[in-house]
Design brief:
Order of helices and strands: EHEHHEHEHEHEHEEH
Shape: globular
Strand content: 5-15%
Distance between the termini: 27 Å
Largest sheet: 8 strands, mixed
Strand order of the largest sheet: 3-2-1-4-5-6-7-8
Radius of gyration: 16 Å
């Protein structure tokens, strides 16, 4: 059985993934933004899940989460599920936090990053991006960046299975009640990539939708863009991947 961190697991796709993995006998580390949100995870904790708490908009909090996890049992996988759709937290939560956790948690053998079909609308431009989150960020750009991050990690860490997943437009708090995609299918691919031994799940560098590999935005596999992104994030956070 595997030990898996699922960020943003208080509700939505993250909670569904954490519940499913726990039901299958895996060790789950759930994550909530603050103690109030953590109350929603009491059921999972009672069933054996561990819990980390920290606001992913705050880099110091991300570092504290990483230090706490590095002091505990090793993780086999991380599902970078936490995400924000609009507002100033978009870039810090959707891009900077997964980058920092990837840099500060060096041992997991599988990494799953939540992308979106919206990433096709992002522009591969890094100048002028508000990495600190003092103004509203572009959701499409954030998902392009994190999808490129997943591909870069696959290239630079060949011993790690790193993939990005488009869960579809599903009826979560973010997606809204009228979203047309299947909520169950929305979290199944993340779990599969995190723990399955099927041959397709043991590949790296993919962009997946409902357990099928798809071709992402051309910039995702542009190594020059990947390198610029990693260099920018390293300079911004004072942390090398």
């Amino acid at each position: 059985m595997s030990r898996i961190l699922v960020t943003g697991s208080a509700d939505g796709l993250g909670r569904a993934a954490a519940q499913a993995l726990l039901a299958r006998g895996h060790e789950v580390v759930a994550h909530a933004r603050n103690r109030q949100r953590a109350q929603a995870l009491r059921e999972l904790v009672d069933r054996g899940a561990d819990l980390v708490v920290g606001d992913l908009t705050e880099r110091a909090a991300v570092r504290t989460i990483a230090a706490e996890l590095n002091d505990g049992p090793p993780l086999d996988a991380v599902i970078h599920n936490a995400g924000v759709y609009r507002g100033p937290a978009v870039i810090p939560v959707n891009v900077v936090a997964p980058y920092l956790l990837t840099a500060l948690l060096p041992t997991p053998g599988r990494l799953v990053y939540l992308s979106s079909g919206s990433h096709f609308g992002g522009r591969p431009r890094l100048d002028g991006v508000d990495w600190e989150g003092t103004s509203a960020g572009s959701y499409a750009a954030s998902k392009l960046f994190v999808t490129a991050l997943a591909a870069a990690v696959a290239r630079l860490r060949p011993h790690v299975l790193s993939n990005a997943v488009d869960p579809g437009w599903v009826p979560t708090r973010m997606g809204g009640p009228h979203a047309p995609d299947d909520l169950d299918l929305g979290h199944r691919t993340q779990e599969w990539l995190a723990v399955a031994d099927d041959a397709p799940a043991l590949t790296s560098g993919g962009y997946w939708y409902h357990q099928r590999r798809r071709e992402p935005h051309p910039a995702v596999h542009d190594e020059a863009f990947q390198d610029r992104l990693l260099r920018t994030l390293a300079e911004e956070t004072d942390t090398e991947l």
